[in-house]
């Protein structure tokens, strides 16, 4: 009977040991999941900043382009008005 009790106790110790290993693995998995979530959040934040910087630069380029177009249109209208005044007509074509 003593052999049966000692083998039962050995099984209980093994179960306890496996339960502790499972708990440790669960804790590690939770920690790794949190680290992964943090890394994803940082990556999304970096992408957001990159997108914002890109959008800002794009807007600046568009504004510069609009300014250049406006200058060219003004120059074109001024040139037409000058040509018209030289040719004797009063309104631009």
Description:
With about 90 residues, the protein is mainly alpha-helical. It has one helix spanning about 1-85.
Stretches where pLDDT is under 50 for at least 5 consecutive residues are none
Q: What shape does the CA trace take?
A: rod-shaped
The number of E-state strands comes to: 0
Order of helices and strands: H
SS-derived structural category? mainly alpha
Cα-to-Cα separation, first versus last residue: 116 Å
- Major pleated sheet: none
- Helicity range of the residues? over 70%
> Helix tally?
1
Helices and strands, with pairings:
Elements: H1 2-87
Short summary of the structure?
The protein is mainly alpha-helical and 93 residues long. The chain is built from one helix and no strands. Helices cover 92% and strands 0% of the residues.
Keywords:
rod-shaped, 93 residues
């Amino acid at each position: 009977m003593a052999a049966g009790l000692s083998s039962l106790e050995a099984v209980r110790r093994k179960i306890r040991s496996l339960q502790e290993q499972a708990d440790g693995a669960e804790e590690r998995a939770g920690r790794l999941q949190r680290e992964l979530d943090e890394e994803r959040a940082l990556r999304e934040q970096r992408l957001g900043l990159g997108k914002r910087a890109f959008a800002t630069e794009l807007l600046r380029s568009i504004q510069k382009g609009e300014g250049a177009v406006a200058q060219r249109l003004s120059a074109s209208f001024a040139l037409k008005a000058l040509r018209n005044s030289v040719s004797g007509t009063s309104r631009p074509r």
